[in-house]
Structures are given as C-alpha cells and as structure tokens.
Amino acid sequence: MDPAMGMGLVALMGAAATVAGCSEDLESDIGSQSNPNSQVQLAAQVGYPHRIFNKAISGEPPSNAMYCAVGAGVAMVLMSESVMSASPLIAIAIGAFVAALLNGVFSTTSYLGRNASQTRFNQYVYLDVLRNQILSLMGHAYITTFCIVLLSYVMWNQDLIGHPFPFPVIALIWGLCVGAIGSSTGDVHYGAEREFQDFKFGSGLNAADSGNITRFAEAGVRSSMDNAWFCSKFGGPVTGIAFGMVVFLDNWRSTAFDGWTAVVVGSLIVMLLVVYNRKIETYARKKYGPFPEYAGDIEA
C-alpha cells in the first residue's frame, strides 16, 4: 500500500474512533451505565428516589462489544454476494441501525425492570423519562456503532489494511476497547463530579454515603439529559480523544514501522504518556487539592 494512503486510512480510523468514544461516553451517561450506576441503583434504597434513567444491563465493554459485533455481522451479511451485495457504507449504516434497535430494547426492559422492582422504596417508573431519553440513547448508540464498524471495515478489507481477523471479531474487540475507555476515562467526570457535587473535590466517597446522589440540576429535578449536558463539556470529548489516540497511535506505529521497531516506538509512546499523566496528576493535586487518604480526613 502507498504510504500516503496508509496514513490517510489511519487518520480516518482515528477520527472515527474519536467520535465513537465521545458518543459512547455520553450514551452511558444518559443511561447511567457507567461505573457510578451502582450509586443510581442504590439511591432509592437509601432514601433518594430520582428521575435518572438507569439501564445498567452490564458493564460498558461487553454491551458495546455486543452492539458493534451485531452491527458488523449484519453489515457483513448485507455485503455478501449471496444476499444483496450492498455497498459498504449502506451496509454499515443498516448494521448500526439494527444495533441501535437492540440498544433500545435492552434499555427499555432494564429501566422498567429496575424501577418496578424498587416501588417499595418510592421509586417510580416515569414514562416521560422513558419516552424522552430512549431515543437519545439509541441515537448515541447508533453513532458509536457506525464509527466502530466503519474503522473495523477499513482494517478488515483486503484491499485496504487486510487484517486477518473476521470483520465481526474486529468490531467486537474495538467495542470492548471503547467501552473500557468510557468506563476508565469518561466516568471520572460523571460520577465524581456530577452525581456527588455536594462532596469536596478529591475527597472520595465514604461507604456510608453510597447512594447519596445529587438529585437537583440547574433548572429543577435532575434527569439523565442534565448529565449528558454536563458531560458533553469535558467527559465525552476527553473520552473520544483517549480512544482516538489509542486507535491512531497504534495503527500509525504499525504503518510507519516494521517488526521490533514498531514495538520500540510503541513502548516509547506509552512511557511518554505515563510521564505526561503523572505531570497532570501532580498539577491537579497542587491546584485543586486536598486529596486525603480517606474521606474522613475532610472536616464536615
């Protein structure tokens, strides 16, 4: 492959991954399917009924892996000559739509099931919450799946990169990856800063305060759309950048270098990122501290 074309494909994959990471994080924030979801589930049981959508079907990695694998599988079938020989773009769009419908089914059943089981704690099923937020969840899931399946197709196509793994398997792996990055990167700016705004920054969460979520937003009772509004300012974009860097830097080094040289370059990139992350951490500790050893160190 021409080096310029190879770098162009890598740039395309990095851009698609950036969009996918951002939309995945916002989808999980709207549906409370991120690490703080246990706090949302527990809230009603400790006296904090709420209007936040909760669809914690599973962790973000396995659910996104399922959506992306389904989308890639549908697209692969549609592109096969024995079915309809659809163009890749149309096939990927249809596959992402099927995955979004799957997301809607799981989101609806999980929301209804969880809230109905907590009626004894004054937690109700709000039909307006279901109506207003389910389409937003499906829309974000569509964007995520479309971008992941698109970059997986670029890797799988034998005329482009020609990865030996099957198309759905590549999408499955990238779905796991984007979900894991959404949990590790985006959730910090959702659970720690949005659900627990009445706690001092960096204080951590005492076990006795589990479920004590902040239930009111800037304009009244909080909903998951308020979470998305907040997270779209930083949590979503930084998740997209993190995932985009993973896809771009990894494919860039393997495109520009061969063999052990690529391994050495990859190791250097990781070490530089570790040093840079440490610099940011120490800056944040000095600027926004204190960061006590446990929440009890902070005076009431």
Structural summary, described in words:
The protein has 300 residues and is an all-alpha fold. The chain has one domain. The protein has helices at residues 3-31, 37-43, 60-79, 88-116, 127-156, 167-184, 191-195, 224-231, 235-256, 259-288, and strands spanning 216-217, 220-221. The chain has a two-stranded antiparallel ribbon with strand order 1-2. A hairpin with a 2-residue loop joins strand 1 (216-217) and strand 2 (220-221). It is flat and about 60 Å long.
Note the beta-strand portion. under 5%
Tally of distinct domains: 1
Query: How would a crystallographer describe the biggest sheet?
Result: 2 strands, antiparallel
Radius of gyration from CA coordinates: 21 Å
Number of helices: 10
Class of secondary structure makeup: mainly alpha
Structural shape: flat
SSE arrangement, N to C: HHHHHHHEEHHH
Poorly predicted runs are 294-300
Average the pLDDT over all residues and give the rounded result.
86
Helix content: 55-70%
Euclidean distance between termini CA atoms: 63 Å
Q: Going across the major beta sheet, what is the strand order?
A: 1-2
Number of strands: 2
Layout of secondary structure:
Blueprint: H1 3-31, H2 37-43, H3 60-79, H4 88-116, H5 127-156, H6 167-184, H7 191-195, E1 216-217, E2 220-221, H8 224-231, H9 235-256, H10 259-288
Antiparallel strand pairs: 1-2
